[in-house]
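ok trying this again, last paste got cut off
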Amino acid sequence: MKKLPFTALALAALLLLTGCAAPSQEASPPPPDETDAEYFPAFTGVDFDGESVDSKTLFTGNKVTVVNFWYSTCGPCLSELAALTALDESLRERGGQVVAINVDTLSGDEKEIAAARSIMADKGASHRNVIPDADSDAHFFAMSVTVFPTSYVVDGEGRIVGEPIVGRIDRKGIDDELSARLDQVLGDG
């Protein structure tokens, strides 16, 4: 019986270190179009500042884009916000960027957007966050992410490079994997 509290504590620590499960969703969205699986789904939308966003120009305007999925009450997501901003600043010097999608804001609810912006400000995070239009493939793609944080490396043509990176980008091993993938796309490796 004494092992039960230890086991529960160990499982909680494992979840905290690796990622969060998806927040509950009202409806299960259809999966993204399998024929375009190697490309990040196209979308238009807005960012947290209300500026229009188009995935075509978002990706083609950069050599590489790290797209990060997070939500506002995910501990590991919040822990990596500063690291994402640092990565964004570093990538901008090399022709890249970090763009995040907070799944809590996908509905366009102003309260959720304000809450996410407040969290970012509190954490000193300044990288761009976008909200894909509700009828876009990227919206449904975001709704299909089940573990947070999850990041994708996308090249300047909009192609997803490698498998999704699950967990905080600043964790040992994951940081090396991400760096190698970025170097591959940027031609530094």
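PB: full thing came through this time. The helical segments are 3-18, 55-60, 75-79, 81-92, 110-123, 137-144, 174-186.
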